[in-house]
Structure formats: structure tokens, C-alpha cells
Design brief:
The chain is mainly alpha-helical. About 75% of the residues lie in helices and about 0% in strands. Helix 4 (about 80-95) runs parallel beside helix 7 and helix 4 (about 80-95) packs antiparallel against helix 21 (about 420-450).
């Protein structure tokens, strides 16, 4: 009898010791956290198609705003800089809401976030057609419309990255090439709708396109976690053995089995409460905020800095290409066709660059640097073109050159920060892009207005009107006729805006090149620290 009690006591001591070891080294719950492994296919291809169409709508709206520039100037009686601010607020708001959109995606998932964005953008753009002045247009079309489109943009770009790993750059290129396809489709469509129905009904129809994106957002379900074919042996023991288990002739309580599953038993918590509390506090550490983590990464900070001039330079050609081409004798149809050419070749370039970047020896950051460098050359060449065919060649080069920049962004961020921080990093990056999108086209528009010959003529007319207040009615009539005749002639200095665009893109390429070398230096330092010393 005494011997049995002694053996039972020894068994209890062994169990207690095992429990303490398990508390010191519990089964990590972080193994179950984070995104599940990408399945590389399946429903992911449906999400690729939905993301493609969402990008087509939201970027098609932004890139085709230059076509509405002249009608809005006539309707509201404002200059190029003020009207260009409306489009810049739209594109800027799309990107500025990136952190908000990524936070919503992390909490509610891409499906609900994209649907909410589609509803907000469609309602805002529809109501903007009733704006009595340009400032309410900035609020409804620019701020609120951009908010809705931004909530669509982040899930549309990042959702595919969680479904693919080996083909991540390729599928990201396919989904983001919807942006290029949007310029192909929306440029002629917006031109035709504006010419036939006016800009108000044109934007009302565009609002219906945004509403249709709610159906696309409904397809963006998260990656399901893999279910185990066979239940864990410990779980099976718990289910099959509700009664106490006999071990070495003694009863083993159910809580002993809990040790194997990383759960502290009640008896041990009662006997060693201090140990349980101490070990629990030591093991369960709060995870660092994703935004703080990405902001501590030096290569990512360099990429953020490089995106400021890059986005400013990108949108200037889209905004003022119709103006400079029509000034040089081309029709509105030719101008819309040139924008479509950019979009068409940008679309194909994204697929090719995405496939190339998936090669293990190709660095996504270096591809981005080259894309910005060659893209900087094209706006400078546009100032030297004077016919449709020369503009066509340069526009094709512009579309192909910058196609890799958005196509490899997700792969670049995963390479630097990992898949778990993709959404947070993309949200921060789009916010920075939004800040620069606010500045690019308005900067070009105000510089054009300030350097155009018509400004000097206007000042001269004001002085002459004050001096010649006693002029006859006949001379005044001739002056009005002369003014009306000169209205169709556009003397704006568009060239300066394209030079600014080239300089900004060149600066962005240089900053990304520095980020590339910083990344290489950090990788070499990490490899050296992990290498065991002899």
C-alpha cells in the first residue's frame, strides 16, 4: 500500500515537472497566426480577374480626367491649374486613404472593404455632377470619390498576393494591367460620352461602372486555412477518453493530457500560480504594429521617398498630353488614341515584366529603378514631337517603360518585408503616392498658366483698358471680335510641364537605385551575422 502511494507520488511529480517545462516552452500560437500558405491557383484566378476589372475602372477614371479638363474649364470658368486640382485630389485621395484601406482589409477582409469602396465612389461621383461650383466638385468628386476608389484600390492590388507565391509578380502584373486597359477603354468612351451627352451625364454613367465593382468585390474572399485530414492525436485522446485514464496502475487526470496541448492544468495553476503568471507574461508578447515595423525598414523608407517625385512625374503627361497634341494640330480623337496607346502597351508590359520578375535571379527593386529611368526619358522626348506618328512612338515607349513599376510593387514589398506585412506596407506606400499625386498635375498646370504668353497679353490688355478709357465704341467692338477670334488658339506653354515630369521621374529612379544598394548592404550584413564563425 505504501509502495503504491510512493509510485503514485513519483508519477505526480513527473507530471508536474513536465507541466513546468511545457509552460516554459509552450506550443507557439504564432504558428497559427499570419496568412495561410498561398495555394497558387484555384479561386485565386477569379480574384485576379476581379482585381483586373476593379483596376480598370478606378484607374480609367483617373487617367481619363484630362479629357474632361476643357469642358470643366468652360463650365466653371476656371483656369487649368484649378481644374487640374480636381483630378489631382481624386488621384491623391485614392492613395492617401491607403493606410485606412489596409487597416480595414486587415480587420474586415478585402471583400467588405472593396464593396464599401464601390458604394461610396459611385454615390460620390454621381452627386458631383450637381456641384454648383468647382469647390464642391473638389469635395464630392475629388475627396469623397477618391475615398471610395481608394477603398477599392488596396484590396484589388493586395488580394491576389495572398493567393499566389511562385507566380506572384505575374498575377500582380495581370491584375494591375487593368489600369492600362482602363486607359484604353475609358479614354475613347469618356470622349464619346462627353461629346454626345456632356460631362455631367458622362460622369453619371461612370458612377454606374463604380457601382458594378461591388459585385467584383464580393468575389475577394480570403485564403482558407487548410483543414487537417487526420485529427491531432491529442485531440482524439480527449474526445475518446472522457473518463480518467489509468497510467501505471494509477488514475491520470484529464488535465495531464492538456499538458500535451500546451494548456496549463488547474492543479498546477493552484500549486504554482506565480510560475504560471510569470511564464505566461514572458511567452505571450504583444505583436508590434505593422505600420511601425515597415517604417523601421531603411530600404522601405528610401522607396517611400522615391515615390514622391515618381508619382508627381507620372500623372503630368496623362493630364496635359491632350493639350499639347491639340496645340500642335492634332484632333481630340488623336489625343484620346495616344492615351489609349499608352494604356495598351502598359498593359502588355505589366504581364511581361511580372513574368520576368518571378525569376529568382531578378530583383523587383532593380526592375523598378530601370522602369523609372527609361520612363523619365519619354516626357522629354514628347516636347520634340510635332506629328501623330512621332507621338505614337514616344507614347508606346512611355507605356512600356513604366509598366513594370506597379506590376512588381507587391513582389518588391514581399522581398523586403515579408508576406505578412504586405497590406500594411502597401497602404503606407499608397499614402505617400497620394501626397505626391496632389502636387504633380497642379504644379504643371500653375507653371503652364504662369509661363504662357497669354498671361502677358492679359496684363497688357488690362493696362491698355485703363489708359484708353475714352476709346470709341467701334474700336471696342473690333477689340471684342479680335478677342473672340483668338480664343480657340491655345498658346499655353505645355513643354515646361513635360520637362518637369522628366526631371521628377529621373530623380525617383536615382533614389530607388540608392535603395537597391542599401537593401543589398543590409542583406550582406545579415548573411554575415548568420554565418557561424570558424
Amino acid at each position: 500500500m505504501g509502495k503504491g502511494n510512493q509510485e503514485e507520488k513519483q508519477n505526480t511529480e513527473v507530471v508536474s515537472e513536465e507541466a513546468k517545462n511545457l509552460l516554459r516552452h509552450p506550443i507557439s500560437q504564432h504558428e497559427e497566426e499570419g496568412p495561410p500558405p498561398p495555394p497558387d491557383g484555384g479561386w485565386g484566378w477569379v480574384i485576379v480577374a476581379a482585381s483586373f476589372l476593379c483596376n480598370m475602372v478606378l484607374d480609367g477614371i483617373g487617367y481619363s480626367f484630362g479629357i474632361l479638363l476643357a469642358p470643366l474649364m468652360v463650365h466653371y470658368g476656371e483656369g487649368k491649374g484649378t481644374i487640374a486640382m480636381v483630378g489631382s485630389i481624386l488621384t491623391g485621395a485614392i492613395m492617401l486613404v491607403g493606410p485606412l484601406a489596409s487597416a480595414l482589409v486587415n480587420k474586415y477582409g478585402p471583400r467588405k472593404t472593396c464593396i464599401a469602396g464601390a458604394l461610396v465612389s459611385s454615390l460620390s461621383i454621381f452627386l458631383s455632377t450637381f456641384s454648383p461650383n468647382v469647390y464642391l466638385l473638389m469635395l464630392s468628386y475629388g475627396v469623397l470619390g477618391g475615398l471610395g476608389l481608394g477603398l477599392m484600390y488596396v484590396p484589388a492590388v493586395t488580394a491576389v498576393g495572398y493567393w499566389f507565391e511562385k507566380k506572384r509578380s505575374l498575377v500582380t502584373g495581370i491584375s494591375t494591367c487593368g489600369s492600362g486597359f482602363g486607359t484604353i477603354v475609358f479614354a475613347p468612351v469618356v470622349t464619346a460620352l462627353e461629346a454626345g451627352l456632356g460631362w455631367q451625364w458622362c460622369n453619371r454613367i461612370v458612377a454606374c461602372f463604380c457601382l458594378a465593382c461591388s459585385l467584383l468585390g464580393a468575389t475577394m474572399k480570403p485564403v482558407p486555412r487548410k483543414t487537417k485530414d487526420e485529427e491531432d492525436s491529442i485531440t482524439e485522446m480527449k474526445k475518446q477518453n472522457e473518463n480518467p485514464i489509468i497510467k501505471n496502475g494509477a488514475y491520470v487526470a484529464k488535465e495531464e493530457i492538456d499538458f500535451m496541448d500546451g494548456t496549463a492544468p488547474a492543479s498546477l495553476e493552484a500549486d504554482d500560480s506565480n510560475l504560471v503568471k510569470t511564464e505566461t507574461e514572458t511567452v505571450v508578447l504583444p505583436k508590434e504594429n505593422g505600420y511601425l515595423t515597415v517604417l523601421k525598414n531603411v530600404p522601405f523608407l528610401m522607396i517611400m521617398l522615391g515615390n514622391l517625385p515618381a508619382v508627381m512625374g507620372l500623372y503630368i503627361p496623362y493630364m496635359f498630353l491632350p493639350g499639347i497634341t491639340q496645340q500642335r494640330g492634332m484632333s481630340e480623337g488623336d489625343s484620346a488614341l495616344l492615351i489609349s496607346l499608352i494604356g495598351f502597351f502598359n498593359t502588355g508590359g505589366r504581364i511581361v515584366s511580372g513574368a520576368v520578375t518571378d525569376h529568382p535571379r531578378v530583383d523587383a527593386l532593380f526592375v523598378t529603378t530601370l522602369a523609372l529611368f527609361f520612363g523619365a526619358i519619354c516626357p522629354a522626348l514628347m516636347t520634340l514631337c510635332y506629328d501623330f506618328w512621332s507621338y505614337s512612338i514616344v507614347c508606346i515607349l512611355f507605356g512600356v517603360s513604366l509598366s513594370a513599376w506597379p506590376a512588381v510593387t507587391s513582389s518588391m514589398l514581399v522581398d523586403i518585408l515579408g508576406l505578412e506585412l504586405l497590406t500594411s506596407a502597401f497602404g503606407v506606400l499608397t499614402c505617400i503616392r497620394g501626397l505626391s499625386a496632389f502636387l504633380g498635375p497642379p504644379l504643371g498646370g500653375f507653371v503652364i498658366d504662369a509661363t504662357s504668353p497669354e498671361k502677358i497679353v492679359q496684363v497688357t490688355d488690362v493696362i491698355a483698358a485703363n489708359v484708353t478709357s475714352l476709346a470709341t465704341e467701334a474700336i471696342s467692338t473690333l477689340s471684342e471680335i479680335s478677342t473672340e477670334a483668338s480664343k480657340p488658339e491655345d498658346t499655353s506653354n505645355y513643354q515646361v510641364a513635360f520637362v518637369i515630369s522628366a526631371c521628377l521621374l529621373g530623380l525617383a529612379s536615382a533614389i530607388h537605385l540608392v535603395a537597391f544598394f542599401v537593401k543589398k548592404a543590409y542583406a550582406a550584413k545579415k548573411t554575415e551575422s548568420e554565418t557561424p564563425k570558424a
